[in-house]
Each structure stands twice: as C-alpha cells, then as structure tokens.
Amino acid sequence: MKSTLTNDIPPPKCQNYLNMGHPLSAISSSPDGTKMIVAGREIVKIVSMESELKIVNNLRAGKTQSLNYTGNDCCWHPSLIENYRFLIATAATNGAVVIWNTTREGSKSVERVLTDHSRAVNKLVWAPDKFDCLLTGSQDSTLRFWDFRDANPSKIIFSPKSESIRDVQFNPFQPYQFASAFDNGTVQIWDTRKQTSAVEKITAHQGLVLSLDWHPEEKNVIATGGRDRAIRIWDFTPSQVGGVMGKALHNVSTISSVSRIKWRPGHKWQLASCSSIVDFQTHVWDVKRPFIPVASFTDHRDVPTGLLWRNPNTLVSCSKDGYLLINSINDAYKPYQHIRTTGISWNVNNDIASINDKINRNQNNESTSLSNQFPSFFASFNVPAIPIQTPSKVEQGVLNIHSPSNLPSTVNSIDKSYDYHVLFEYFAKNYKFQGLPFDQLCQHNEIISIQAKQYHTSKIWALMNLYFTPLFKNENEDNNNNNGNNNNNNTSTNESLDENNIVEKLLQQKKEKEEQQQQQQQQQQEKKLKRTSSAHLHIDDNSGVNNNSNSNANNSVNDNIEDMSSSSSGNVTKNNDMTAKEPPSTSVYMESKNDQLLSNLLSAEAVTPLAPLPSRAPSIEIEKSKSSSSPSNTSPILYNDNSNNINNSSSIDDQDV
Amino acid sequence: MRVFHRFSTSHEDLIHDVSYDFYGKRIATCSSDQKIKVWDLNDNGEWGLSAEWKAHSGSVWKLAWAHPEFGQVIASCSFDRTVCIWEESEDEKGQKRWQLKATLVDSRDSVTDIKFAPKSSGLRLATCSSDGYIRIYEAMDIMNLSQWTIVEEFEPQKGSNNCISWNPSSYDKPMMAVGSNDPYLKIWEYNETGQKWVHLDTLSPVGNNNNYDSSESGKAIHDVCWAPNMGRSYHLIATASKDHTVRIWKLTNIHDKSKMELKEIMCKNDHRSEVWRVEWNITGTVLASSGDDGNVFLWKCNMNGEWKLLSIINGEERNEDR
C-alpha cells in the first residue's frame, strides 16, 4: 500500500481525485454542498463537486502574489441567503484575513482585507448567527471577533494569554459559545458576549492541542487531538464541570500527533483523524474501540491537512502532496479484516498454548462492546462443519494450554476413580476385535476408552486408526478382487457401529481375524525390533515418502506399546494380554501388499544411510552420530524420553482444572 | 487433547500473539492494548502474571523469545512501525524488571512479523513489514543489546509481507520462507559468495482451481512455519491462508539447485474460515493450525504419507473432548 516517495507516483486508488499541483492546507464546503474552496499557501481555488471534480474559479488569478492571499485556512459562509452564500474567508500566514466574493471576477472579488492580527491566523470560522461576523484564532495568542462590514472591524478581542491558538469552533447548539485549542495544551470555552475570561478551561493534552471538533449530535461533547498522539473526548455539560476537569470520556491512542479531527455524521462515536508527521493515512476511529481504527485511507503521499465529511461514507481530504481526494469508506483499508487474533505456541513437552479471540471482521454496524461480539461473528461466516457449542457469553483474552499427556507432578493417576479390576472387566466386556472393518473397530474401542476416562488409551486407538486404516482398506479391496466376494465388505464399512452387525458371513469373520493377526504380528515383530536395536531407524527418502512415514509410524507404535507396558495404569498391560490371548488358530497369511510392506519395514536392508553431514556441522554432533549405529543427524531426544512422545497425544484425567 | 489450563489474560483488547519461551516455563502475550504480558509457571503448576508493560504506541502484532543463551530477551513488533527489544534484568534488590534495550525504526509501515534466527547464526532478528522489505538485524555484541546493526534488507515484493519463517536447521545455509498478500510462497537464501540474500527459484502458487475466492487477494498467506528438520532429508513448510486452506509444502534437494523442488503435499480446508496461524511442534511432526472458526486443528502424517486430522481443540470446552 505504501509506496516510497518518488517522483513517478501512480495515481491514487480512490475514484475521484484532483491534483491541484500545490500543497494544500484547508478545504471548506459551500452550504449547498456543490462547491468547495481549496486553499493552500499558493492557491485559493473553487472546485465544483458535482459529478466530477473540476476547478471553476481561481481566485488568485491575476493578482499580485501578496502574502495576504495565502490560504492557511478557509471557510465558506454557512448561510444560504443570497447576499452571503458567495462569501468566503481565507486566513493568511501573515495575519491577514481576506473576504472574497466568488461571483465577482478579478480584483473585485476581494471584498475586504483585515489585517489586525500580527501573526499568522491559524483558523477562522463564520459566526453561525451573525452573518457579518467571523471569528479568528491566531498565532499571536489572540482571538478576534470581526464584523467585516463595520469600519472598525475587530471590536471584540479575546486575549486568553495562553499562547497561540490552533483551532476555534462554534458550539453547534449555542451560537454564542465557542471552543478554542491552545499551544499550552488547554481547551477553553468562551462566550462572545463575555470578553474578559473564559467560561471553561481544561487541560486536554500534554503539549499542543492541534485540533478540536464539537460533536454534531451530542450536546457539549468535544473531541480534541493533540501532539501527544492522543484523541480525547470531553463532556462540557455545565453540571458535569466538576467532574470534567482532567478526565476524558474516551481516549484513543494514535501513532503520531493528531492534526485534524472530524466527527463522522451518522455514526455517533466515530471520527476521522489525520496526522501532521510520519503518518500519511487518515484513520476513522470508533472511540469505543480505541486501539484499532475502523478504516484507514491510505492514498495520500504526504500528510493530509484538511478533512471534510460529505456524507457518512465519503470523506474529502486534501494534503500537502497537492491532491484533493474523495475517499469512499467502502474502499478503505479495514484493519479488522487483516489482523490475526489467534496464536499457537508449542513447548518442549508438546503442550500447546493457544489463544483465539473472536473478532467481528465486518465492523460496519454500530460498535459493539467486546463481550457481545459473538452473535455477529457467526453471522458473518458459514456455519463450521464441526458443531461447536455456542456459549452465551464469550470471554475475550483467554489463554488455553492443552496438554497431551500426564505431567509428572500430577500424580493422581488415571485410575484413581476406577479400580484396576473394574477397568479390566469393563474392557474385557466392551472391546471389540473382530466383526467390523478395522477403522470401525478402532473407533469403537476409542469410544469405550473415553467412556472409561482412559484418554491415554483412547488416543492410542485413534492413532492406530489413523495410521493403519489405509493398510487394511487396501487389503479389503484385494480380497474383493481376488475372491470375487460379495460387496458386503464395502457396505459394511458404511454401517453404523451396531451390535447387530457382528453377525456376518464366516468368510468375512475369518478375514477380519486374519487382519488382526497380521496387526498383532506386526506389533510383536516391532516389539522385538525395538528391543534389538536402540538406534532410531532412519530410512532415506529414496524409497519414497511411504517408507519414511512407515518408520515413523512403526516407532511410534513401538513407543505406544512401550508406554503401555511401562505406565502405571494396569489396564493397559491387560490390553496386551488380551490381544495375546487371541487364538492364532488360523495362521494363514495372505500374500498381499501388506506383507511386502511389512517385510520392507523390518528388514535391515531398507535402512540406507543419509548423505554425509556437511562440514559445517559442529563437532559434538559428529561424535554423537558416530556412537550410534547410523550416521544420522537426528536428535537423540526423540525416542528416549517418553514424555516427549508426541504420538501419545492423549490427555490427562478429569481432575478439575 | 484437553484443556489443561485456562485463564483470562485481562488484556483490554484483542490478543494477537502468544509464545512459549524455550523451556516452556514462561509465556508472553501481546495485544492491541499495546501491552506485553509475561506469565510464569510456578512450582505448583500454575500460571501467574509476572510482568506487564505498555510496549508500543500501536497494536503489538508479534512477539519472539530469543534463545536463552542470550538471556531473557523478547522482541516485539507493532503497528507503530517499530520493533522493540526487551530484556529482563535484575537490579540490586533482586527485583526483575523488563527494560527496553533497543528500538528499531527503519520500517516505513506497520511491522507484521519478527523471528529470531536459529541460534547458530548468532543473535539475529528478521523483521518483515508492510512496506515490502525484510530486514535482518544483528546484535554484534550480545552483551550489549542496545546496538543492533542492519545486516541485510531485501524486498521480496512490493506491497505487504505478512509472515516469515527461518529454516531452523543449523546445518543449512540461512534460509527463510516469506508469505505475503499474493498466493506465492517464496524461499530466500543467503548466498555466501555474493554476501546477500537471493530468491531461490522455486515458488509455487498457493491457489488452485477450486478455491473460494478466485481473485488474487483472496489467497493471501497469513502465516508460514518451517518445520524443525528432525532427520528428514527434505523440508516441510506449512502455510495458513486466507482462502481457508492449510497447506504443507515439501522442499527437496536444497543443496543442489538444479534438482530443488517445492511441492505441495497437503491442502485442507477444514477450518472453513480464514486460517491465521500454523505452528509445528518441536519435532516437526504435528502441525497445529488455528483460524477464525475458533478451533485449533492438529494434523499428522499417516503411514501412506497422507496428512490426517488428528484432533480438534476447541478452547471453549471445559469438559471432555476427543
């Protein structure tokens, strides 16, 4: 989005823009919205806003380049009355205030030049009720209330003695009242009828207050923006006075000083802000969510200097880069669509710490408080496939730590709630080893384990299912092809885990038994293998991914079995005994791919050494690999430490968290 | 997997990152409320808040712990375009405090990701930013963390970069994977003869024909993670994407450029919503992914080389789960 400042700049992305060619300082709209003054140090022009942007009048054309005509600020008369609707006022850097009549041409367009200020005038506004009057705030620390038709125009002078004034604005609800922003960090409310002192004075910011804006709907609410990188919202209702001092209603932190703010019409608590240095973007903030803007307009290439809301979804902005842009909020960059609110971190024990904050990625509506975001979140997306229990209230900012295994410190072992014998009986009655396809057997046994709260064991069943199902699926297909046997094999995999399904054809049962025996065979062989070789078998990838995963799978199953036999929970060893009790009566091994696979896995010829280590390997690693039988560079911690065994991804018992 | 601990972090706004330290005894979290919080595991197995401080003047996007041989060091990056380095030190009374050691301000836009390099390269930090540049900093003197020099700066593409991941293997040349708003996963490698980082030729598009969003921007890569290479002869890189997919890529033959290949070996869209994080576990065998649907999915490879869903973790459930 951000391009570096080069001379060949691509045009802005927004639809409607106009390059004025000179740095711009301020814009102001005519009361009927059709035209706009665009003012800068060297230009004062009228631009037509209808359909497309077009310059209709250059007020400075043909005049001397007097400093009086610089446009530090500008303001179009707010009234629609015939005499006044063509009047505009500009404030100059040398202190001059110039009143123009846009209907007249050439030198007659200047109605009056008022030069009473000694230093630059930073801001000027027309008085809302007295059409001949305007108010200016200047770098010379005075505010003047002018009647430009009068011979002696600046009759009323306010001298707050508080340093330069950066911004003034009339209260939309009380035409005699105005607020002004000062360099010493204060914001003061004055009454035009009372020249001597301010009605109200608060310290709004540390350092300069650069901008303020009265709320268009909420009475007596002012937003202020300062050099201290904050936007604050204040309530000046008279009864609140005691409490207002020093405490803001809301506080938004921005990344650099705030030079202009403007409340957004139609959205009660949203405002636009831009910055005077560093940040070229204009942000739209919701003051209730003070940390992330609702939308950002990124098209300017230098600091924006003037903001104007044309309607709730369109912001007109001008900038030092000379461009006048019509920004549409639909095209704005919406940070909420791009930020990540979830994090995962693994630790060495295979615990996962995770956070997942719900976020409403379409922040179009009225702002919702944090805890109620949940309903609107689900409305934005498809319903997820896994049914999720929808809690009534979502906690934000919750950190979860998930653990796959028992931590040694929690010695309350699994079978605290269930007696060893009870478990054995339970498993003896409920485990299934035949009569169903392999994956359904595993699923069934997994569910049985969960019901007994043996999560460790249930995970082993889940893993067996995951690893070996393809093995037995292949075999099933082979059986069908070889024996031309019925299609019941396939249909049986689709049937539910029902007790009635145990009744099947004899041939089917025999096949299932054979599958399990092969499985047991494999397990027993792997057990033997594990005992004989201590080194991790590393199979080079030359033989394809399968072998690699197989070796992983093998070793993981090995470790599963190891764990089963070594853990304190007795029921697991009983499993082993139970499987060993299966009568190996029909020891028919079908010639199938699986045998081939198994023999590949277990034969020593399948082990091929890795490519030699590059010379950069530290010497310690070389020593270690020399001591073990294979020159692999695997980390030795993988298979020595049970607690590190990622394959035992089960969980601990149900003690209360 | 079951939830073992669950606690509220009391961040005032959205949390963006959580990170275990090297030993798993401390956790750091960062949030849009501009603060970083550090939690310690005490002897009873409980987590308690050990420090919190306002770290930036904008949302803090990411944190990274440095290897403990360099001390207790955290780096954080933020929307306010800065990267800050914090170190915990003990003063005379034995009080531990986190202090700001350095602020890196070279970026011209929001910094989206930071990662420390594998410790064999020394104390190096890579930062990736929305202005299109990846910058690599090094602390030449590890005793003095306030001096960081910018070692390298390269631009994978114009426009925003979202995520980076170092190759954690100490035996390869320094390499990293970069993900950005277009669907291409890029691998960059440090070329010693030229003394600079070059882009390796292998890149493959993330997008396919049957994706949800056919426009380019719909396939932005949100997160990338390079798996620890525990003895495999190839590398695995996982990506999380805006188009609802989690993908794993296999990178082979990195030492021989003519045969190098980057191939996609898994593509899953079980999240059915944008996927924002992928993380490998310490052995590089289980992949955790998390997305807008609120779930963490764990993936594991079966004997046929197919990646299957191992477990689903939904953090809101307190009771039994798979």
UniProtKB/TrEMBL annotation, chain A:
One of its GO terms (cellular component) is vacuolar membrane. Residues 479-495, 542-559, 640-657 have a biased composition (Low complexity). GO terms for molecular function: zinc ion binding. The keyword Chaperone does not apply. InterPro entries: Beta-prop_EIPR1-like, WD40/YVTN_repeat-like_dom_sf, WD40_PAC1, WD40_repeat_CS, WD40_repeat_dom_sf, WD40_rpt, WDR24. Keywords: Metal-binding, Repeat, WD repeat, Zinc, Zinc-finger. Residues 507-516 have a biased composition (Basic and acidic residues). WD repeats lie at residues 114-156, 202-235. Gene3D superfamilies: YVTN repeat-like/Quinoprotein amine dehydrogenase. Residues 14-234 form the EIPR1-like beta-propeller domain. Residues 563-587 have a biased composition (Polar residues). GO terms for biological process: positive regulation of macroautophagy; positive regulation of TORC1 signaling. SMART domains: WD40 (SM00320). PANTHER family: GATOR COMPLEX PROTEIN WDR24. This is EIPR1-like beta-propeller domain-containing protein. It comes from Polysphondylium violaceum.
UniProtKB/TrEMBL annotation, chain B:
It is found in: Nucleus envelope. InterPro entries: Sec13/Seh1_fam, WD40/YVTN_repeat-like_dom_sf, WD40_PAC1, WD40_repeat_CS, WD40_repeat_dom_sf, WD40_rpt. It holds the Pfam family WD40. GO terms for biological process: cellular response to amino acid starvation; positive regulation of TORC1 signaling; protein transport. SUPFAM superfamilies: WD40 repeat-like. One of its GO terms (molecular function) is structural molecule activity. WD repeats lie at residues 8-42, 53-87, 268-300. Keywords: Nucleus, Protein transport, Repeat, Transport, WD repeat. It comes from the Eukaryota. GO terms for cellular component: nuclear pore outer ring; Seh1-associated complex. The keyword Chaperone does not apply. Signal peptide: none annotated. Gene3D superfamilies: YVTN repeat-like/Quinoprotein amine dehydrogenase (2.130.10.10). Belongs to the WD repeat SEC13 family. This is WD40 repeat-containing protein. It comes from Polysphondylium violaceum. The lineage of its organism: Eukaryota, Amoebozoa, Evosea, Eumycetozoa, Dictyostelia.
